[in-house]
Amino acid sequence: MIQISTPLKQEELNQLQAGDLVFISGTVYTARDAAHKRMIEDLNNKGSLPFDIRNQILYYVGPSPTPPGQNFGSAGPTTAGRMDVYTPTLLDLGLKMIIGKGYRNDTVKQSLLKNQAVYLVAIGGAGAMLGKCVKNSEIIAYEELGPEAIYKLEVENFPVIVCWDTQGNDAYIQ
Amino acid sequence: MKIKKITAEKIKDAIKDACLSIQYRYSPKMEETLKEYMGKEESGLAKNILKILLENSDVASENRLPMCQDTGMIVVRMTIGQEVQIVDGSLKDAVNQGVREAYDVGYLRKSIISDPIFDRKNTKDNTPAILYTDIVDGDEIVIEVAAKGFGSENMSALKMCKPSEGLNGVRQFVLDTVKNAGPNACPPLIVGVGVGGTVDYAAVIAKKALFREIGEENPDERYANLEKELLLEINELGIGPQGLGGKTTALAVFIEHYPTHIASMPVVVNINCHMARHTKVVLK
Predict the structure, then answer these.
(1) N or C: which end of chain B has fewer CB within 10 A?
(2) A174 has a pLDDT exceeding 90
(3) Confidence of residue A1 (pLDDT cuts 50, 70, 90)
(4) Is residue B136 part of a domain?
């Protein structure tokens, strides 16, 4: 069983192979469509992001609300391709791992390679199980976006599959 | 003819209960079907993913967490008997109030935005719903409710086929749409197909197809056979659970058809994921 803990280490990322099942523990930031748009606007207008993205993990998710007695709501991945237009900018700033689901375009794949970063996929439709892996959560930016706000999550044994590794192998290509 | 009165409140409650009943557990038929396909998978990863999906349904119901964080846009198909009068409120308000209450008490994600281009502001109560009404003979209201996720909705497609393209044109378009959807629509899928009518009506009946339960066939044998053939062909594509390879790409193909114009053969493929959240209630 492959375990990855934050802070991420480049040599561990380099060993990941497309198709590997990996369990992640540590800090993960969330962002989906509206948060990406806002982050890029912040970069253009203020020159900075609401958090230091260097060496971090970004998870494409818009969670359901947290019910009483739970740590977090349902939290499965959303389709990654919608973020393609924003992704290379974030990778160039030092983002090291992305979790989502679905195809990425060639520009993103080349940017991942160039920046020695990895794209992993979580299981779409396993939102309740994935939500149970979240032990702590805190909204750190864009609270007004509701489910699209940026959360800082602490996760434990969060299951993901390596999709695009640092050698350029793609788990989606048969 | 005696007029039967049904209150808006009763409709509101039915919509609310329906919205809540589909979010926290697969339908028994879906569970059974996923288990059956899990048994047929040879790849370890494909088998594991189906196992995780089944476990997710258990975790969801035990913790009362929705199975998927995308708790959907509500689509209501309402068939109203013409001997029914809806009293003490408006139908549309009743439907939206039912949705509003369900998404609040159920801790379901509010995913609806007010304007598609300019504002894109969350309405914060998951309304409005999409409502289709049909007036028929009778003295009851049949309410069908689905919570449609948009990872799969986004991978749906329309083609105005030429009549000369015939059966193979339809077949190829369905296969191309599923191939193009790949992992994005969270396979295993339910594939709804609407053939005929107009550009809009083909989409309406493709969505209607998604309200069927696995095992329900088109009553026309030719279409029922096409459904079976397409399911086999889709599962030979090798896309597999989550697009990571395997035999389980779709669990059902449902085709609805309607008369059309001599000049055309509209085809809409409406993709659904394995959540396939829908239910039916009859008010008498």
Answers:
(1) N
(2) no
(3) confident
(4) yes
Q: Which residue has the tokens 């003979």?
A: B137
Same-domain status, B232 and B253: yes
ipTM of the complex: 0.94
- CB contact (8 A) between residue B66 and residue A145: no
DSSP per position, B86-135: EESS-HHHHHHHHHHHHHHHTT-----BS-TTTT--B-SS--PPEEEEEE
For residue B39, is it within any domain? no
Q: Is B66 exposed, middle or buried (0-12, 13-18, 19+ CB in 10 A)?
A: buried
B128 and B158 share one domain = no
For A17-57, the pLDDT digits (tens) are 999 999 999 999 999 999 999 999 999 999 999 999 999 99
Residue B27's alpha-carbon distances to B4, B86, B182, B275, in angstroms, are 32, 30, 24, 9
Nearest CA in chain B to A129: B56
What are A84's two structure tokens? 């393609």
What lies within 8 Å, CB to CB, of A110 at 6+ separation is: none
Domain that holds residue B241: 151-277
Whether A159 sits inside 8 A of B108 (CB atoms) is no
Residue A169 domain-assigned (yes or no): no
